[in-house]
Amino acid sequence: MRRRPTRTVFLRGAGKALLLVHLVREKVLSLVVSTSRGKAHRLCSGAAARQARHASEAGLREIAGAYQEMTPLTLRLLVIDDHCVPGTLDRDLFAPRRPAYKVRCRIRLTAYYTSSLPPSDTIDAILTAGDRPLSPIPFTHGHDGTGTELVPGPPGDRVRAGHVLDWDHPGRTLPEPEEAHRVYRRVHEPPHATVAGVRHQHGVVYRLTLPADDYYRVPRRP
What we know:
Strands 1, 4, 5, 6, 7, 8 and 9 form a 7-stranded antiparallel β-sheet that branches. Strands 2-3 form a two-stranded antiparallel ribbon. The termini are far apart. Residues about 15-35 have low confidence and may be disordered. It is an alpha+beta fold. The chain is elongated and about 70 Å long. The protein contains 5 helices and 9 strands; from the N terminus they run αααββββαβββαββ.
């Protein structure tokens, strides 16, 4: 029976020891530079975060309201997801990279509407509203090459300036809002409304998803 060379055994043992040291170092560094969930929650609950959150949500609600005021759309359901993420140790290729922030927060608004007009007339009215000077609605009859034209088709491919508008089609209806996972705050108005319920009561459902707004960030000192 051949004996394993002592040098090979030593090198393998040294390699395992170095790997263990590296893992311990990474763990310690992560604990030192990463923001704990408790501290992140305190930062997200502070006055500065609340003020920024209120301003961001108000701006998004104003845009969603403009679609109702300027078009045949009637707002039936509003879903707001507020995510706050603590800064954690990251990697840049093979080297650890310290987070640039202690916490950052972003908010996303999705609005569900119905219309008293057929889809073709509703879409034309939306385009007409977007044609107006200084309109907050980016969809227009003209196409300048910076986005996808708003024309009837499968849901999900009407995009302009970050606004995504889609609606029910025969055989393909809009789903319920996705389940909220690890969100700091979720707003669901009215609380018990569902897309299926809105559709059953009012007909074709239109969904507007606005660009997420990074409204709050606490930088980490170098």
